[in-house]
Amino acid sequence: MTISRTICLGFIAVILTGTLLLMMPFSTVNPQPDNILVALFTSTSAVCVTGLSVVDPGTYFTFWGQLFIALLAQVGGLGYMTVTTFLMLLIGRKFDFSQKLAIQESFDRPFLQGSQSLIKSILATTLIFEFTAAVLMYPIFAQKYSALYALWLAIFHSVSAWNNAGFSLFKDNLIGYQSSIVINLAITGLIIFGGIGYQVIIEVYAWFTQRFQEKRKGFLFSLNFKVVVSTTIVLLILGTLAFLHTESANPDTLANLSLKDKLLTAWFQSVTTRTAGFNSIDIGKMSTEGLLITMALMFVGASPSGTGGGIKTTTFRILMVCTRSVLKGQEEVILYQRKVPLNLILKAIAVLFGSAVTVIVATLLISFQEDNFQMIQLFFEVVSAFGTVGLSMGVTANLSVISKLMIILTMYIGRVGVILLIAAIIGDPKPSVINYPEENLLVG
User: Fold this and answer.
1) 52, 297, 373, 440: which has the fewest Cβ within 10 Å?
2) pTM over 0.90
3) What residue ranges do the domains of the chain occupy?
4) Which ranges constitute the DSSP H helices of 301-341?
């Protein structure tokens, strides 16, 4: 049982547990014959923090079913190893070396010391952000709903947003609140900080702590921090401008909105496209250009150690810098005066290739089953599932059983990661002492 297999099987165990819970009679309002598939699809979507759904969660599931969805999204966002480690801390068990390695693998960071403190910091950060956002959103929901239900709406959407899950208890998702500054900023704030990665948040906290203590020694941010933050900011700004440009003349999305609402909605879509899955406009009525931009942002996704999916901002940035280095005739990849190791470059290429193959194969297999939908609709659905985004053009519920199972598998692959899944299947690599001769070939 390798570390990668432990993580992959752990997610499967959580998905199956969630499926059983959502199949219980007290979880659904009116149990249906296809309850098993609905429960499996919803559980996978929640654990993989995707948000795609074949039913309306607000009317199909009871309070208990909605609570299970929120808990599954919380487990999926934190990660199987984080939750398992926290439970071990609660019962007083100590880490062994293999468990520390598993935590290292799940966060893709080379730390072994202070693992317990890290887990506690992650949980504390999660609770602080979710509680703060719920407090901000509660008065808005309380204007229309009872105090108790408004509180549940605030908590559910806070958990869903922080974990980039995208589940909403409203039939139109958040279209009804596209003009609410508080709801838009609270949701987008949770999405950004949840998807940017815990390491970045911890570094910001350390920087503030040092500034507060007035230490003279300068704080040195890591390369990961610089790449993640700069890439995220650029993508958010470019996404907002792109949506304003492509959708401002579209009467079904932004054309009929005020300038304030246009800016707010474009910003919201730019943020939520990066693996969150909420929507404040009808995705099915977006222009073709807007859909292509959405798919590109969904494919890039969030950042490492965050709650989102996609190929990650660091992968995207490394590949861009690699291309720049080739165009300039450079033999090294330099980021912020730091040389990027060859193994990271190879990993980035493998992630891109594996992700592209997964999306293309899944789209083709689903297209063989579905004759009633356009290719762009199916492609959009698959990219959304792989990027664990949850945005949909409205075709999810109408897919065949086989296509829904393919979407389930795509969501799972997108959550655990292509590289980790392949490592779980083929096992740990075996070291080789053979050095082969080098030879050039034509490329490009």
Assistant:
1) 440
2) no
3) 3-426
4) 313-327
